[in-house]
Amino acid sequence: MINVTKAYLPDQEQYIKYVREIWDRGYLTNNGPLVQELEAKLKEYLNVDYLYFCGNGTIVLQIAMKALEIKGDVITTPFSYCATSNVILWENCTPVFVDIDPETFNINADLIEAAITPETTAILATHVYGNPCDVEKIEEVAKKHNLKVIYDGAHAFGVTYKGKSLFSYGDLSTCSFHATKVFHTIEGGALISNHPELDKELHLLRAFGHKGDEEYYFAGINGKNSEFHAAMGLCNLPNVPDIIAARKEIFDWYDGFLNWDILSKPKISSDIDYNYAYYPVVFPSEKVLRNVQQALAAEDIIPRRYFYPSLNTLAFMPKNISCPVSEDMSERVLSLPLYVGLPLPDVERISKIINGHLSP
Asked: Which residue among the candidates 181, 211, 265, 352 is catalytic per the annotation?
């Protein structure tokens, strides 16, 4: 079977070496030495000042909203994984969906201002497929209306925009280190801050809001991660350049094999060093997409409708907001298998199956 993705696994002996060290110390969690080492190396690799290694890519969004005291309405994208909008609901706020740009699939920054009301306090935008949002326009609108900006950078590890880490933009940025990501710690995530004054608060928020046995400051949450997860990150981090290079090679193979007279894909910004996180393809109709899905499934090839459905259409959303571009794209986009070790013959076979089933 060829799945849409496959977790990269480092040298087994290297990981076991870390596990033996953990066993010898008997220190398993609670901001242990490997967690601290990983945070330091991630800050150096990403060239950011403040980074907090946490349990997953969802909890970091919740902590970000709590740290910035977000209330009321939050402008967000309908084209993302449900974690983005679910977090807004979990923090007792209301998602206000703004449609996406038809070329980048990111939130359309030109439509944000019209959605702002007196109840709006923040913008939560996703760098979809690791492709940067229009960060300059979003910053301009946010400053004008005194809004906080959080970027969901779940797909954006290692991406630089105009020479800076994409995580450097906004008030807070987050990332997922789930096993399916370009860089992973099995489960995990990071919160990246541009505000030194938030440093102590963010440390406390991920650790129940207290330190020591008697010092309690506020109601935090358990966002910590373990030494075993940090060990996986320490094994994987040195391999990230090779991982990205391998993914780019597969990306280029698809580019060469697929029929672009009928297919299309999101436009990638020219101002970035990209991480090749996903390979999304847009079909002429949902019918064609489903035909291709069935043909691939018959060969044990499993792509993913990433993202589907458009989040504004979920029945439990409190506001009924039309987002026609997102609704259209979500019905026609399919992410193809992309992972280190996917052989050239399989990429060619996948492409031939797709090209052979593009008729309505």
From this structure: 181
